[in-house]
Structure to design on (201 residues):
């Protein structure tokens, strides 16, 4: 993981010294997680948020999170692109993994699916970089996220911004900013399986 963090420092350090502002497509899982990540990235990149979260269940929850994402980004004057809601794709990739624990193979497939959708879109629309807010969560495996990003960078030819956004108080700052902007913070990750687990607690 340290190697990926060194790559992040190298990329961002070079941008700070050069004054360049390359385009970056940021996959965002939700508005709360995007707050501190955007505060960090918008200093160095021209950022567009990509809301691609077909895992979220039910549809009403997807729309609620999308509304909050758009509301926050409007305040910050950051464009948002809404990906199509294809929950059937998620249930297909989660088939036979319904009883997996959080963070297991089902979650890895979900993360990889959303990241690949982001890389695909970035390639098709000429973005120079792509990355995701997912590593800001203490419940997400940053090493897996960065390893997946490396594979997608090779596959699509778009540079992946390696990061662990929970570092340097990233997660704590996301909580503070969410309170400051009165952003709805959901009580479960997103899918019906995490919703069921939350209900059981």
């Amino acid at each position: 993981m340290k190697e990926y963090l060194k790559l992040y420092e190298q990329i961002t350090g070079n941008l700070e010294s050069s004054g360049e502002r390359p385009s970056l497509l940021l996959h965002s899982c939700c508005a709360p997680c995007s707050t501190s990540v955007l505060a960090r990235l918008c200093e160095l990149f021209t950022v567009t948020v990509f809301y691609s979260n077909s895992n979220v269940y039910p549809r009403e929850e997807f729309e609620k999170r999308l509304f909050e994402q758009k509301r926050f980004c409007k305040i910050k004057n950051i464009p948002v692109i809404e990906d199509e809601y294809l929950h059937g794709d998620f249930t297909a990739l989660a088939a036979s993994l319904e009883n997996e624990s959080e963070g297991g193979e089902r979650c890895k497939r979900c993360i990889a699916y959303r990241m690949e959708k982001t890389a695909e879109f970035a390639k098709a629309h000429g973005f120079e970089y792509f990355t995701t807010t997912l590593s800001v969560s203490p419940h997400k495996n940053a090493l897996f996220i960065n390893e997946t990003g490396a594979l997608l960078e090779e596959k699509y030819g778009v540079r992946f911004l390696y990061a662990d956004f929970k570092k340097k108080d990233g997660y704590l700052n996301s909580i503070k900013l969410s309170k400051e902007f009165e952003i709805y913070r959901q009580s479960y990750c997103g899918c019906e399986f995490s919703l069921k687990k939350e209900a059981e607690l």
